[in-house]
Design a protein that fits this description.
Blueprint (H helix, E strand, L loop, with lengths): L4 E6 L4 E6 L11 H6 L3 E4 L2 H4 L7 E4 L2 E4 L9 E3 L5 E5 L3 E9 L2 E9 L2 E5 L6 E8 L46 E14 L8 E14 L2 E12 L5 E11 L5 E12 L8 E15 L4 E14 L3 H6 L10 H5 L2 E14 L2 E11 L6 E14 L2 E12 L9 E15 L5 E11 L4 E11 L21 H9 L3
Antiparallel strand pairs: 1-2, 1-3, 4-5, 6-11, 7-10, 8-9, 8-11, 12-13, 12-25, 13-14, 14-15, 15-16, 16-17, 17-18, 18-19, 19-20, 20-21, 21-22, 22-23, 23-24, 24-25
Length: 478
């Protein structure tokens, strides 16, 4: 026969030790003075036998006793200097620590790296508990606080129900294996020359559809869009991209193909411009703050437009043909970068990218970049500086330095229960050509169902946290 379990009921002024026998329930009524004090503790004096003790609180109304539902996740644990509360974090996490003392609950939220975290009472025994929030592709929002019934002077008949409590139901169901479908709109106004003479700007409008699919560590993306141009013939594009990220190592790979068609003009036929590239490289994460990346990719471009056609037909736009691409139809690019994230909502990145000439042996240009991203109350702000050194060759008599600065802002918005979107604005200043570009980006799709999985390696800032994750948490009111 199991030994009795000794428990202590601690009220406002005193404690009563009660011995509980197996199969013999004990009924204890809360006095009015204890109700007014608002604090009643139950302590297990012999923990081994106390593990089999269950508590069922009830309230009396309309001549009947009614159960008050409790959830085990609401339990506070006792901690002192010799008995800490310990949890093991498998990844960098946001944790919420709650303490209960003198009838008052306090809470604090921290970002803690992967490892072990312990809660220890300093001077006296402390009641505490901890919630761990991790960014998981299947993370659901769960309400851990059940609704507390309100008792008014005018009594109402309560109808018992066997329905599942609300706090046990996931409010949002997400699945990263679902196909992401997004419609997008991009408006760009560029080639604005800052002189005293008025100069018309080139404005383009992209309207399209983007499909994203994921299968384990493989990502697929197809973009189709129509571009309207106020200076040149309209175009239609179909772009495809495949990404692979190794689960066992630091390697990743990417393949892209871009195609753009332009309808016939008064003096030109229908034309096609395409490009294809294949990239492979490695990502190294040294700790919770630093990440380095390198990659190398060959590229090849094709266009059915000749130089004479481009010069004769003003309706052919720079998206279809440029003199630079005509002189650099193929080659390679190499990149090395470092990213530093000192805080959970901010990071800095820098990198250098080398591009070869068409002979694959000499360098055409070297590009140096520095970017800063900051998340703040549902918004992401971006500032960047790009410096490019262009080497002299048969097409350039002198080497030059060229500079670009960029400012950006983006935020997420909830469109409906099943759809959400992104809104962004960018400003790019070209100091070498004394021009600037203004852009507006709007995306709308089923973000509410496709979870928090980032799209391939180039959008992964860190495996634990990234700014777009924070934006989507804000969007989902997490």
């Amino acid at each position: 026969m199991a030994p009795p379990a000794n428990v202590e009921l601690v009220g406002p002024n005193q404690g009563d030790v009660i011995s509980l026998q197996p199969t013999q329930p004990l009924y204890y009524g809360i006095k009015q003075v204890e109700t007014r004090q608002g604090l009643l503790q139950l302590r297990w004096l012999n923990p081994l036998s106390g593990q089999s003790v269950s508590v069922r609180p009830q309230y009396f109304d309309q001549g009947q006793w009614h159960d008050i539902p409790l959830d085990t996740r609401q339990i506070f644990y006792r901690s002192d200097e010799t008995t800490p509360i310990t949890a093991k974090l498998t990844r960098d996490s946001l944790i919420k620590i709650e303490t209960f003392a003198d009838g008052i609950r306090n809470e604090a939220t921290y970002f803690h790296p992967a490892g072990q975290v312990s809660l220890t009472g300093q001077q006296q025994q402390t009641l505490a508990r901890m919630s761990i929030w991790t960014l998981s592709p299947t993370l659901h929002r769960v309400n851990l606080v059940p609704e507390v019934p309100m008792f008014l002077k005018t009594k109402q008949q309560l109808t018992p129900t066997s329905a599942e409590p609300v706090f046990q139901q996931a409010r949002i169901e997400t699945d990263e294996s679902r196909t992401g479908i997004e419609g997008f709109l991009n408006i760009d106004s560029d080639d604005i020359v800052q002189t005293t003479e008025p100069s018309p700007s080139r404005t383009t409008l992209d309207l399209g559809l983007s499909l994203r699919m994921k299968d384990e560590n493989n990502w697929y993306r197809i973009d189709t869009f129509y571009t309207m141009d106020n200076h040149h013939q309209d175009t239609f594009s179909i772009n495809g991209q495949y990404d692979w990220l190794s689960k066992q190592s630091n390697w990743f790979a990417e393949a892209r193909m871009r195609n753009r068609w332009q309808d016939a003009t008064a003096i030109s036929e229908t034309h096609l411009s395409s490009s294809i590239s294949a990239k492979f490289g490695q990502i190294h994460r040294y700790n919770s703050g630093f990440r380095s990346i390198w990659w190398w990719q060959p590229f090849y471009t094709y266009t059915s437009i000749s130089k004479d056609e481009f010069i004769a037909d003003e309706q052919i736009g720079p998206d279809m043909y440029t003199f630079y691409r005509n002189n650099h139809k193929h080659g390679w690019q190499a990149h090395a970068g470092l990213r530093y994230q000192p805080w959970v909502d901010s990071y800095f990145s820098s990198g250098v990218t080398l591009t070869s000439n068409q002979d694959w042996q000499t360098l055409d240009n070297a590009l140096f970049s520095f970017d800063w991203y900051q998340f703040y109350q549902g918004h992401i702000f971006h500032a960047g500086l790009t410096s490019s050194y262009v080497f002299a060759d048969q097409n350039r008599p002198n080497p030059t330095w060229q500079y670009l600065t960029q400012l950006g802002w983006q935020t997420g918005f909830d469109f409906s229960h099943n759809t959400a979107g992104w809104l962004g604005v960018t400003w790019t200043q070209d100091w070498f050509n004394n021009t600037h570009q203004v852009g507006l980006q709007v995306r709308l799709g089923n973000l509410q169902q496709t979870a928090f999985a980032p799209y391939a390696h180039d959008e992964i800032i860190f495996e634990s946290l990234q700014l777009s994750h924070l934006l989507e948490q804000d969007l989902h009111e997490r």
